[in-house]
Structure formats: structure tokens, C-alpha cells
Known about the structure:
Blueprint: H1 10-15, E1 36-41, H2 56-65, E2 70-75, E3 80-85, E4 88-93, E5 99-104, H3 118-129, H4 154-157, E6 158-162, E7 165-169, H5 177-180, H6 188-191, E8 214-220, E9 224-229, E10 243-248, H7 252-261, E11 266-267, H8 272-281, E12 285-290, E13 294-300, H9 305-310, H10 325-334, H11 337-344, E14 349-351, H12 375-384, E15 397-398, E16 401-402, E17 404-410, H13 414-428, E18 433-439, H14 441-449, E19 455-461, H15 469-472, H16 489-500, H17 504-521, E20 524-530, E21 532-537, E22 540-541, E23 558-559
Parallel strand pairs: 1-10, 17-18, 17-19
Antiparallel strand pairs: 2-3, 4-5, 5-7, 6-7, 8-9, 9-10, 11-21, 12-21, 13-19, 13-20, 14-20, 15-16, 22-23
Helix pairs in contact: 10-12, 11-13, 16-17
Amino acid sequence: MRKSIIPSFFLFLSLFVFFSCKSDKEIQRPGTSGGNLFIAIKNDIDFFNPLYSNDINSGLINDLIFSSLTYSEFNTDSGKLEYYPGLARSWKIADDQKSITYFLNTNLKWSDGKNFTSRDVYYSYFLYTHPDVMSVRQDVERFFIHDKDKKIIPEKSFQIINDSVITFNFEFGVDDPLFITGLPIISEHIFSKIPLNEIFKSELNFKPVGIGPFKLENYSRQQQIILRRNDSSYFDKIPFIEKLIFKVIPDYNSRINQLKNGEIDLMTDVRPEDAEILKNNFPEINVEAIKGRDYDYVGWNHIDQLTFKKSNGKILKPHPLFGNKEIRLALSMAINRKEILEGYFEEYATLAETPISPIFKSFVNEKLKPVPFDPSEAKKILEKHGWKDTDNDGIIDKNGKPFKFKLSIAAGKPHREFAATMIKKDLKKIGIEVEIETLETSFFFSKLFGRELDAWIAGWTVPLDLELEAFWGSDLKKNFFNVYGYQNFEIDKIFSDFKNAKSKDEKRNLMFKFQEIIHQDQPVTFLYWIDNIIAFNKKLKNVKFNPVAYTNRIWEWFISK
């Protein structure tokens, strides 16, 4: 789930975003270059077009074919993003933060040989923000200049100075202009030929003309994607590796076996037990863990589903079990999260208390005390709210209704199967009966987003810009990822203020307050932040993984002979 669904505009910005104008890092150059690198991915690409691509793997591949004006790395020491020149060689931000001017590398060429100019940048953002195009990143338009009817004015928002200079103008001062202007650039000469409302169904969405370090050589649907080094167009970032072959291997066991057999060279999301096997028994394979932005949680439905469905979402009646925040706190206290973490992940995860990852060091509210594992206190809270075992059957009840529910999980997720079993055991000790329900993945998501589940285990990826309204905002029609039905209008005010904040200190204070409220309300039971365990063949050199994306600086990787 968390690997395939995150808010639209922020998918690419979650992968490649930026901080300050710095020169490219020095790298150790190999004596030779070339070779093929085989990378396992678990699903096929959705589009070879950043206008529409809405999947993590697709985003990674598209960012190798296309490029942005800048690219970034996440500094794990400072908890901040650092920016580097990409298609732009430099930039200048206005003192009032209401505009940014880019000075472009106009010696670049598209993969079909056409020259790159500021017209491509203009047209890319024209397409991203135009309603007829229906880009999944259209919501970026809210930052730019609008007329009295609230329609974006492209010629004022994206101002071409000349072929090598373009200025972006914002409706208001923004905290990070580089972030807002960080979407991949696509070619005007390709897409200007197509009517806007026909781009979505165009065959060109699978015949990309890019300006990135690699270009598409061959695509076999549901089998493999072959990218070849783009020798001619990517200035000082021409890769050392000749080809990247992304093999689509949906089955985890097949991926790990092909890694062990040398049929693939790299895979992500390795399970902890396999990480240890690889470390101990496969000396030719390196294993690295990246601290990141993925967390698992136990979701509690705050809304009575039947009433919500019958009223077409107009009546929000509290869920009979989970509608009270003190009950949710009791549930969190009754679950031994540390035992689950240590039993499955060992050192490859850390406990979560809020949806702000520890990698965002300056935004984590360190004053919050972790929810303790305290079954006796949990039982007292439940008794206070009338939940007692009145018929001595081992299950607490209230007004004749026993406290029992289904805990739903998607199939093929062993860490969630393990967690569900442990949670069932823990809650039984305080008189709650849990039935574990395992659903086929697509059916699980259908029921989850249809608000048909009582309780579930799932996970999210936190956007790098910490725009969290889609997950926690009270407007349930607008905020698609608020599947628990959580509503707190003080939180909504924080989100509104966060968007308009003029400084990082102001944003930090708002995030501290947000975490305090979330901690008090316990809308879900936060479980743990999960490391991305990456295994790769030791012949692959100069590899430095980053939380932004494991393919970050892939043009610097090389294969030893």
C-alpha cells in the first residue's frame, strides 16, 4: 500500500526535491565503464510520463529518463534536503520568496536530438497545471498566479526571459520555491502536437523522449524495462553503467532467489530474516538498511460504517468500538509494540509515536512521551467507559455487546501477519476478541478506501514536504487517505497555517503542535518506522543510498570488472 499510493503532486517531489545551490560532489571515477545492472521491481510501470505516473517504481524509472531543474539528497545528519544543479546550472530566489529565476543548461539535447530550452520548462508546467490535461500533479497550480476567476495565468506564472532563463512567479511568498518548481521537465516539441484532452490516452506515454541520464531502449509489458545510458545529452552526468534492466518480478520469493543465484544484482524491501541469511551465507552480496519514511499502523475506524454508507457520507456517527479517543488510547497501551518490533524486525525498525519520521530531526517533537505498554491501565480505561466482563465469558462487553472485531490485513505481508497475531494475543489478555481477516490485496484496498473495515494494519509513506492534510484533514471527501475518518478542526487550522507559514521555525512549531494533538487523540496505533533493506551484488561500486530514492546518483555507480 504505502509503496503505490501517496498524494499525487508530491510523488515526484517525494523522490527528488531540493535545498540550496551547491556544486556537484566529487566522485571516484572508475578506470572502465559499461556493463548491465539487473534490478528487481515488483510491479510494472504505469506511464513513461511524469504527468500521469502515480507509482513509486514508475517515479524512480521516470526520473532516470526525464530530469528536473534541480535534484536533491536528504541529509540524515541535519534532517534536511540539499539541492544540486540539474537542468538548471544555477538559480536566484527573490527576497520575498514570491519568485525564483533559473539559469538553464541550454547545451543539452532531448533523446531525439532536439535542443532543450526554457520553452520546455514553460510548457511542462503549462501541462501540469492545465485542467484539460488531467495530470495527477495538477494541484501544484495553487502556488502560481491566478485571475479573478481563480484560473491560473501561465504567462504570468512561468515567465520566459530568453532561451536559457525562466522565472516562476508565485501567488504568495513560499517557504521553498525550489520544492514547488521541482517537477520533471518534458518536451514541448513532442506534446504541443497533441490536443490537451488527448494526452492521457496518447501512445507517447509509452514512447518517452527524455533528457535524463538514461533513455528507454526496450519495454516488454509485465516483464522488463531496459534503459540505456544517454551518452549525448546529459552533460557531466553521463552514467558509467551501460544498461539498467528492471525485471518485473511480483513474487518476493522469486526476487530473493534470483538475487542469490546472480540473476539480478539489486533488490529492495528485503525481509529481515533474509537480510541475515544474505549477510551470513552470501559473501558476494552487500546488505544495507536505509532509515526512511515508511511506517505501519493499526487503523481504527472512527465512523459507524452502515450509517455513513446509508447517508451517502452525510451522517458521521461514532464507531461503537473505536469512536472514542480514550478507548483508542487503551488499545494502544494494550499492544506490546516493542515485542512485535523485536520479534520480526530486530534492528531494522524503530517505534513510531506520530506520523513524523525520525529522519526529520528538526520537526520531531521530542517532548512527547511514548505510549507505554500498560495492559492494566488499558483495562481501567475500558472499565471507566463501561466495558466489563459481565457474563464471565472472558470477553468484556457493554450493554450486551461484546468487544470483538475483525482485524484485516492484505495477503502476502508476513510482517503484518506476525503483528496481527501478536495484537490478537495482547488484546485477548484484556478481554477483547480479535478475528484476523486476510484479504486479497486489491480487495483489501477496495474495502479500506470504501470505509468498510473496522480495524486493519497498513502503512503510509510520509511526503518529504510534510504536507499531511491528505492523511489527517477533516474533509473526508477531499482527503482520500484519511481512511480512519479522523476529524479534528484544530488540526485543520494547523494545516492551513502550515501552507502559509513564512519560515521554517513557524512550520516547526506547527508540526510540534500537530504531533501533540495526534498523540492525544490516538487516531491510529502507530507501530514502527520500517527500514528499507537493500541487497546488491558487491561488483556494484560507488553506491550511496539515500532516503530520497535508492537510485539517487545512480549515474555515479559502476560495475567492477
